[in-house]
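Researcher: Please translate sequence to C-alpha cells.
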Amino acid sequence: MKHLKELGILVAVAAVSAGVSCLYVKHYGNNEKIIIQETQQAPVQYSAYTHDGEPVDFTYAADKSVNAVVHVMTTYEVQQSQMSDPFLEYFFGERNFQQAPQKRQASGSGVILSKDGYIVTNNHVVDGAAQVNVVLNDKRQFKAQIVGTDPTTDLALLKVDADDLPTLPIGNSDNLKVGEWVLAVGNPFNLTSTVTAGIVSAKARNINILSGDMKIESFIQTDAAVNPGNSGGALVNTRGELVGINAAIASQTGSYTGYAFAIPTSIMSKVVADLKEYGTVQRALLGVQIRDIDADFAKEKNLETMEGAYVASVGSQSAASDAGIKEGDIITHVSGNKVKTVSELQEKISRFRPGDKVQITLLRNGKQETVSVTLKNMMGNTNVVKNYDTKQLGATLTPLTDKQKSNLGINYGLQVTSVEKGGRFQQAGIPKGYIILRINNQKVTSTTDVESIISTLKGEQEKALFISGILPNGKVVYYAVDMNE
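Model: Translation complete:
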C-alpha cells in the first residue's frame, strides 16, 4: 500500500467480503472515489466514520470531558471482630481483645455538573464512606460532602467548596441512537483521565443489578471499555455532551468483557435536581405492578401486541386506581411518548414528581384509551417528601413506604437511612435501617413529630430521647439517646 501514500490518497473506509478486502479510498483534492480490490488478504474491519465517509473526531469530546471528570477517593472504617484465645480463656476466663477500626480505601469517578462544585457519581461509589475526597484532572484535591443519595437509581450528589470548575454540558439521552459513537471517561484501576470509545449497543436495558422495591433500571448499553473505577464517570457523545453516568459492566471475571451500562441523563437530571433541592428524590408513582410481554405471555393472555407494559395489578387508592386504570390494561404511551417495555415506562414516569399530571395511553380489550393521571408519592399523597437530617441526631430519617408498612404489619414510623460517624445515633448504637416507632412514648408518624419532641427537651435539665422501634427483620429494640450538650 506504499504507493497510496505516495499519491496522497487517504484510506477512509474498509468494507469486507468473503476472502476479499475492498478498500474505499478518497483523494485529498476532490471527491472522486476509487475502489481497489486486493484478494487473499486478512479481512479489515474499521468503522469509525460518518455517513459521508469522513472520520469521526473523538478528540473534541475527549478534550471537553477529561477535565470535568474527577477521581472520587473514599475511605471506610471497618470494625474488626473480637479475637479470643481458647487456651487463655480456660485458665483465666473469657478475654476479648478489641482492635481499633481499620481504614479501607476505594475509588471511582464523578462528573462535575456546575462551576460551584456539584458533582454526580454512583451511590455505590460513596455508600457507607466515612470520608470522600475528589481529585481533579489538574491534581487539585477537595473534601466532598454527600448532598444526597438515591439507591433506587444508583446515583449520588456530592458538593465541594470550589469555584469556576470545568463542567460538561448535559445532552439529551433520548436522542441517542443505537450504533452511535460514545466515549467512556473515568479512572479505571486508578488510571486517571482514561478515555475509551464504543457504540451504543442497546437502550432501556434492565439487568437486575439494583435492589429495592422502587429500583429503576433503564440503562444505556455500550461496548466502550469500562472497568472497576469507571463507576460514576461520564458517557459522552461525539459533541462532548454528557449523555450517561457509567454504572456497571456485564462480566464473569469482574473486568470488562464487552458490555457496559450507563444511567441515562434523562433519569440523572431529575434525581440530581431533587437531591439538590430536597435532599431526597421525589419519586412519582403510578401505583401498579407491571410486567413485560413476551410471546408466551401474549399467547396465554390472548394479547394482540407484545409492546408496552402489562398491568398485572393496581394498588388501592393509587394514582392509577383513581384514574381508572385496570388490571389487564397495556400501557403504551406516557404523555405522548411511546413505551415498549417496563424499563421505558419506569424511565418516563421517573421524570415526574408527585402531583404532576400525565396522560397515559393504554390498550384495553384491543381498544386504545387515554386517561389523565395525577401521580402520587410513596405515602399515597402528593406532598413533598423530605428527609429529616439534623446535626443534633447525626442521622437521616425517611418516611416508610406503604409496602414497608404492609410487610412489617405497621401503619406508621420512620426509617434511619444513614448514620453519621460520631453522631448521637451512632454513639447510642442505632444502626442504619432501624425503624423508629415511638420517641419518649409518643408515636412518630412524620419528621415533624421528631422536631416537636426534640423541641420539648429545651427546658429540661437532663435531655434524652427514649426510642422504641424495630429492626428490618422485625425484632423490637430500644435505645436511649443522650441529648445533653
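Researcher: Any highlights?
Model: The mean pLDDT is 83.
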